[in-house]
Amino acid sequence: MQHLSIFPILIPLLFGAIMLLPPISRDINSQRITSIVGTLFLLISSAILLYKINAEGVQLYALGGWQAPFGIALVADKVSSLLVLLTAFLAFCVMLYAVAGQDKGGAYFHPLFMFQIMGINGAFLTGDIFNLFVFFEVLLIASYALLIHAGGKQKTQATLHYVILNLVGSSLFLFGLGILYGTLGTLNMADMAIKVGQLQGETATLAKTGALLLLVVFGLKAAMLPMHFWLPKTYASASAPVAALFAIMTKVGIYSIFRVYTVIFGEHAGELANIATPWLWPMALLTITIGSIGVFASPGIKTLSANLVIISSGSLLACAAINSEAATSAALYYMLHSTLASAGLFLLADVMTRQRGKAEDRFVRSRPFVQPRLLGFAFAISALALIGMPPLSGFVGKIMILQATQSSAQTMWVWPLILIGSLAALITFSRAGTTLFWRHNGSTAAEAEPAKKAEIMSIALLLLASPILVLFGGVISEFTLQAAQHLHDIQASAYALLPGVAQ
Amino acid sequence: MEGLYAFCVGLLTACGIFLALRGRTFSVVIGLTLLSYAVNLFLFASGRLKLNAAAVLGESEQYSDPLPQALVLTAIVIGFAMTAFAVILAMRARADLGNDHVDGTLPVQPSDASQKSGGSQ
């Protein structure tokens, strides 16, 4: 089908808009059904899109029939369709969790959720850098409202920081885009990639300024070191389904870094070749370090999982800094793993919090759980996956990253930091597990409610993804390698997308 | 003209950044607004400044680039919505947290701190 590549944007838009209208807007149950049906549709269409792209190659969708580089084009290649499928799967699982009762905290949860999915999918699929900005804003404005969902002091304060930071980020994004348009004369990413090689002298310096401003913006989204301070508080205070959905938000920043600094400012960019690499190296390594320190210092599971998100961001940035096909492939695999595993932990943390009364998610002695075996088993699996121990997907992902280092200097820096990050996670998880499950007194809290079936199913789906990523590791890593090759091949990722432009 | 234009954009940006770094939500919101004005002017200039040049073909001897105008329009719409949201959020924060500081707590003045015993906040 010709229009398949725009479905991941249209389906959430349509379902979100329908849910704003009566009669569905008045009844939470019909909203829930609509949401589940919508995410299910999204999941199916994303799976078909991925299958089709694997079989037939890149799909170029010119919006309104205006051909690139003059119109806006959606580019569904292997990288973007893989991430769209990841988003769809995550959205389905998180929605399954939310319909069990977490969506009642405030109005418009379901439409906002859908609009956020639309923004994320649009950011993955678009081939135009200004359109990327627009989809960033779509996902951001939905995320602002979702973050404050269910209200409370903590959330208001965290949201205020998050909103102000991102508004400044948006302004910087526009400054960067203005500079790049002024120097390159185009906003289509493929066209930019071709034209950037011709820049020389002062114009090249100007374009470099714009490109590095964009790195600041993407770094803010991806929680790169000096811009990561908002993340732990924001993620820890958000309600569980929102925090779990936010697991993909940092990955949007990482994806943009890969797309812009591999395709546009990659090896073929003449004077501006690989301009981000010297900045990415120290930032990536310091991000892993600060994430590891944060993991050690975490007082509760939610903060712990937020700090683990920072470590995974750092590891992915290190892959972007290594800047090779193997590293990009490793990053894609690791992205799948870390998104699903950390979303699973965010949801699990919420279930645990509700069963521990006043102790909430803090690592202190408290009443025992209502369902200790179930929660213990889930906690052990998600801990194994996030630490990166065999036999789960974290192990495979980290091995792939470690193997991707090329020179001995890279190995010297990347190996110890990633392994120390794993050690920090291992120590904190064992400390947390012993306190949470073994050091308790008294009877179970009176107000504790056991996890509902839909919630258990949602967490199980997210955690099951980890062994599945290992079982089908060969197929998946083959696919991510092809996707990485596509991204690094300027012929495929730029010239092929512009009919009528010869090399 | 270019010099004056660049000066205005620079001044707006400098004021915007200065105000955005202040501690109270009101000045931060004003700072963000100034920053978005600066961005809009800057985007407009990215298509080069020309006099007597319409953005429509055949209307004047030379034509100007219509794309930055479209970009500015998009940026204005988005910036306006975001500012409105930030204002409402700031009011909500004032109500929830009891003060209008971005951190939710008023910083302790050195003169106050000497009177109280310990306690960082």
List the helices and strands and how they pair.
The complex is a heterodimer of chains A (503) and B (121).
Chain A: H1 7-20, H2 28-56, E1 59-62, E2 73-76, H3 78-98, H4 109-125, H5 129-147, H6 153-184, H7 189-195, H8 201-222, H9 230-237, H10 240-246, H11 249-264, H12 277-297, H13 301-322, H14 325-355, H15 372-387, H16 393-404, H17 408-438, H18 453-471, H19 473-488, H20 490-493
Helix pairs in contact in A: 1-2, 1-4, 2-3, 3-4, 3-10, 3-14, 3-18, 4-5, 5-6, 6-8, 6-9, 8-11, 9-13, 10-14, 11-13, 12-13, 12-17, 13-14, 13-17, 14-15, 14-16, 14-18, 14-19, 15-17, 15-18
Chain B: H1 2-20, H2 25-45, E1 53-54, E2 62-63, H3 67-97, H4 110-115
Parallel strand pairs in B: 1-2
Helix pairs in contact in B: 1-2, 2-3
Structural description of this entry:
The complex is a heterodimer of chains A (503) and B (121). Chain A is mainly alpha-helical. Chain A has a domain of 196 residues. In chain A, 72% of the residues lie in helices and 2% in strands. Chain A has 20 helices and 2 strands. Chain A has a two-stranded antiparallel ribbon. The longest helix of chain A is centred in the middle third of the chain and has 32 residues. The model of chain A has no long low-confidence stretch (mean pLDDT 92). Chain B has 121 residues and is mainly α. A two-stranded parallel ribbon of chain B has the order 1-2. Chain B starts with a helix and ends in a 6-residue tail after the last helix. The chains are: A mainly alpha (503), B mainly alpha (121). Chain A: It is found in: Cell membrane; Membrane. Chain A: This is Multisubunit potassium/proton antiporter PhaD subunit. Chain A: It comes from Marinomonas rhizomae. Chain A: Belongs to the CPA3 antiporters (TC 2.A.63) subunit D family. Chain A: One of its GO terms (cellular component) is plasma membrane.
